[in-house]
Amino acid sequence: MNSLLNSPIAGLTTNHSTFIDEAKADNSLFIHQPYELYSDENHEAWRELYVRMLPYWQKYANEHFIKGIQSLCLDPEHVPRLEEVNRFLCPLTGFKAHAVSGYVPAYEFFNCLRNREFPTTITIRDHNNLDYLPEPDIFHDIAGHVPMHTDPAFADALVRFGDCANTAIGIVSELKSETERVRRLSSIIKAMARFFWFTIEFGLMQTSSGLKVYGSGLLSSHGEIKHAVISKEVQRYPIQIGWVINQSFEIDHYQSLLFSVDSFAHLFDLVSALEVWMKEGKLNNVAPGEPHISETDIRSFLQAAK
After folding, report:
1. Could you tell me which residues come within 8 angstroms of residue 89 by beta carbon, excluding any fewer than 6 positions away?
2. ∠ at Cα 226 (150, 199), nearest 5°?
3. Which CATH class is domain 2-305?
4. Burial 148-187 (b: 16+ CB within 10 A, else e)
């Protein structure tokens, strides 16, 4: 990729990165972080995102996240180097951030969690479009997700998600009908995706200090983090597995329905219970609706089952 240094598209901006385009063209999913390609505008975007989120984190984020931000020693002025992030992260929980070029198929994503690796986007949103991004960027992944990975109890819950994906492999491997394997996988993956969405991405936690945020989609959103905690437009309920796995969601607006856990030990137990439900067949026929499960996601499970 020597041509990248003279590329007409400078920087590592989401949807505007020659490096990522070439990686995808080469079918390279797991990549390195070419830190020298970040532009001044990329660093400015990180700086503005970080500075405006800081007071919201202090007010609405759970204490484990605040501790995690401090433990990672993130630089508010510059896009982080993943090798530096991992230098602080790995000794705490064994997790590490692993750069990817884009979307990670469902089984590969969950299997990464099982192996204490977090697929991490290296591009950052455009400096002139900081408020909304339909896909993850490095701010969402590193400032939203990774501080939570410094907490042992939360990290263990993520690993249990990976265990669930492996359990699904064992279940579908016993089915003789290809049609039934696809049908059942579609339902199981949908249930797992919904559970992940309402916990890891948009979860709330009841604490002695009141309702706090631990979901990374909220922790990386300047507009939604406050809305999630105090808006009267949001319905908030203690989490129930049966409700969550049958509840569809949409990604292009603030969430109007959120669920809370009591602790990360509680979250771990919920993920373990989800696996039990899977073994009992309770994830085989969840309610239709979003999210859409792609052929790529289903194929990732089927290939792993061979």
Report:
1. 71, 72, 95, 96, 97, 146, 149, 150
2. 45
3. mainly alpha
4. bbbbeebbbbbbbbbebbeebbebbeeeeeeeebbbbbbb
How many other C-beta atoms lie within 10 A of the C-beta of residue 121? 23
**Torsion angle of alpha carbons 47, 113, 190, 240, nearest 10°?**
-90
Q: How far apart are CA 189 and CA 180, in angstroms?
A: 14
Query: What pLDDT sits at residue 132?
Result: 65
DSSP 3-state assignment of 284? coil
| CA end-to-end distance (rounded Å), the chain | 34
Instruction: Specify whether the CB–CB gap between 103 and 300 falls below 8 A.
Output: no
> At 251, is the pLDDT very low, low, confident or very high (cuts 50, 70, 90)?
confident
Over residues 44-93, the pLDDT tens digits come to: 999 999 999 999 999 999 999 999 999 999 999 999 999 999 999 999 99
**293 phi and psi, to 5 degrees?**
-100, 115
Distance (Å, whole) CA 148 – CA 200: 9
Query: How many angstroms separate the CA atoms of 268 and 17, rounded?
Result: 38
Q: What's the one-letter identity of residue 239? A: I
Residue 30 DSSP class: B
- Between the CA of residue 304 and those of 232, 241, 272, 298, what are the distances in Å? 44, 26, 21, 10
